From TrEMBL:
Keywords: Carbohydrate metabolism, Hydrolase, Magnesium, Metal-binding
Protein name in the entry: fructose-bisphosphatase
Enzyme class: hydrolase
GO terms (BP aspect): fructose 1,6-bisphosphate metabolic process; fructose 6-phosphate metabolic process; fructose metabolic process; gluconeogenesis; sucrose biosynthetic process
Length: 345
């Protein structure tokens, strides 16, 4: 008889979820949400792979709450995530980069899960077929924020939903991303290490390819948009200049790698080591990336893999969001590079 693998390389994502439930690392409700997210990622992977063919590149003619032109695939990917989460019957509130305000899923609302996500980050790269990704985080619903749909007016419902999603990243039960690149890789943590699953298109299932990912303690790669150098703080300029002459311990200068798509830059950083950063600058003191559905989930993954996620002066996971689309300066990757950066800030 083939012994049931204990969740090692080669394990299908669906099987891994069931194993986590059997080992009581997650409950049945969360297992359903994780499975639904896997479905959303497969659907988006299929759309992204065919974007140029199915006439889905180009703008959707609208702007999102960030004032960014929405690409057709942004809108479609958001619909995909919202639909699978609603249909999972286990999601109470969803907050998306593409939604102005969090959305209460009324038919099942009540003590279920809060899911925050960026359905297709880096979508400005779609027309050039550069890697993009979906990012998500899952929280326990805060029972004190559950609207009373019978008596609360829409403003009260919205207020309670915002309170429910504005939880510190340290509360995250799960964080993950799916990278749509030369291969489609779903990376996830439920608080017990980080696992990577590569989509096998011949089977239509994610298969574990990376067991217990660990970020190297150091890595001589930095990933910043140096076009913003002139607007950076003196401390950050000194840090970057140091990396170009070997960094804290000297030696070989660091290499620059910048895709301009968070999920691609992050995935390379946790596998190869080094640091990815999107600092604040004179024009945008809080940088560009959003705390709730980009920096916090990525920081949970980084920490679970032995790395660090920092604003330069604080641990990202300790920050309590005040607004759903709040931005923070973001530095993530090998603990030595991030700690060295913090010493300049
Ligand atoms: P810049 C993509 O638009 C994104 O949100 C992240 O995926 C990416 O890391 C960053 O912005 C790139 O920003 O200013 O370097 O083009």
């Amino acid at each position: 008889a083939v012994a049931a693998r204990a969740g090692g390389v080669g394990t299908p994502y669906t099987t891994w979820i069931l194993q986590q439930e059997m080992q009581e690392n997650i409950d049945g409700e969360l297992a359903v949400v994780l499975s639904s997210i896997g479905l959303a990622c497969k659907q988006i992977a299929s759309l992204v792979q065919r974007a140029g063919l199915a006439g889905m590149t180009g703008l959707a003619g609208e702007q999102n709450v960030q004032g960014e032109d929405q690409k057709k695939l942004d809108v479609i990917s958001n619909d995909v995530f919202c639909n699978v989460l609603r249909q999972s019957g286990r999601t109470g509130v969803i907050a998306s980069e593409e939604e102005d305000v969090p959305v209460a899923v009324e038919e099942t609302y009540g003590g279920n899960y809060v899911v925050v996500f960026d359905p297709l980050d880096g979508s400005s790269n779609i027309d050039a077929a550069v890697s993009t990704g979906s990012i998500w985080g899952i929280y326990e619903s805060d029972s004190s924020c559950i609207p009373d749909f019978g008596s609360d007016d829409s403003a009260k419902v919205e207020e309670k939903c915002v309170m429910n999603v504005c939880q510190p990243g340290s509360n995250l039960l799960c964080a993950g991303y799916c990278m749509y690149s030369s291969s489609t890789i779903l990376v996830i943590t439920i608080g017990q290490g980080v696992f990577g699953f590569t989509l096998d298109p011949t089977v239509g299932e994610f298969i574990m390819s990376h067991e217990n990912i660990k970020v190297p303690d150091s890595g001589k790669i930095y990933s910043f948009n140096e076009g913003n150098y002139a607007m950076w703080s003196d401390g950050l300029k000194k840090y970057m200049d140091s990396l170009k002459t070997g960094g804290k311990d000297g030696g070989k200068p660091y290499s620059a790698r910048y895709i301009g798509s968070l999920v691609g830059d992050f995935h390379r950083t946790i596998l190869y080591g080094g640091i990815y950063g999107y600092p604040g600058d004179a024009k945008n003191p809080n940088g560009k990336l959003r705390l709730l559905y980009e920096c916090a989930p990525m920081s949970m993954i980084a920490e679970q893999a032995g790395g660090k996620g920092s604003t330069g002066v604080a641990r990202v996971l300790d920050i309590v969001p005040e607004k759903v689309h709040q931005r923070v300066p973001f530095f993530v990757g090998s603990k030595n590079e991030v700690a060295y950066l913090e010493s300049f800030m």
